[in-house]
Amino acid sequence: MTYELSILSQAQALIRHASQRQTLVAANIANADTPGYRSRDLRPFSDTYDASAPPDALRRTRPGHFNAPRDMGAAGAIETGDAAKPNGNNVSLESEMIRGAHLRGQYDMALGIYRTSLSILRTSLGRR
């Protein structure tokens, strides 16, 4: 019998989202000089998980169950609205670097939550 703790699954989803978003940031930076390239990003993590849903709303609790209407991490890439350069490229290296630093903070926060939760779980089981 397996148990899934919601805080651990939330932390994993945030790590997965930050990783996917970092991949897009790296692609944007790599294509900073490519003519016609449009900068892409994911929607914020808070948009992929609707915490304001009523408690009786349908949610997926186990892999074998139904899919929730808004599955975490299912957001697709969107174009960012930065101003385009004369060659049609709209990548701003400054914006991408700031976005990358913000993602590092999200990743570190999620990893800290995950580690702390596991530490609490181990302590409650009598192991340290």
Can you tell me about this structure?
Helix content is 48%, strand content 5%. With 128 residues, the protein is mainly α. It has one domain (6-124). It has a two-stranded antiparallel sheet. Helix 1 (6-30) packs antiparallel against helix 3. The chain is elongated and about 65 Å long. Mean pLDDT is 80; it is low at 68-74.
Overall mean pLDDT: 80
Strand content: under 5%
Q: Which sheet architecture does the biggest sheet show?
A: 2 strands, antiparallel
Query: What is the strand arrangement across the widest sheet?
Result: 1-2
Number of strands: 2
The shape is elongated
- Would you identify the regions where 5 or more consecutive residues have pLDDT less than 50? 68-74
Structural class: mainly alpha
Number of domains: 1
Percent helix range: 40-55%
| Radius of gyration from the alpha-carbon trace, in angstroms | 18 Å
**How many angstroms does the end-to-end distance come to?**
23 Å
Give the SSE order as H and E letters.
HEHEH
Number of helices: 3
Short description, anyone?
With 128 residues, this protein is mainly alpha-helical. The protein is built from three helices and two strands; from the N terminus they run H-E-H-E-H. The chain has helices at 6-30, 45-48, 93-124, and strands spanning 40-42, 77-79.
Topology of helices and strands:
Elements: H1 6-30, E1 40-42, H2 45-48, E2 77-79, H3 93-124
Antiparallel strand pairs: 1-2
Which short descriptors sum up this protein?
mainly alpha, about 130 residues, single chain, elongated, about 50% helix, two-stranded antiparallel ribbon
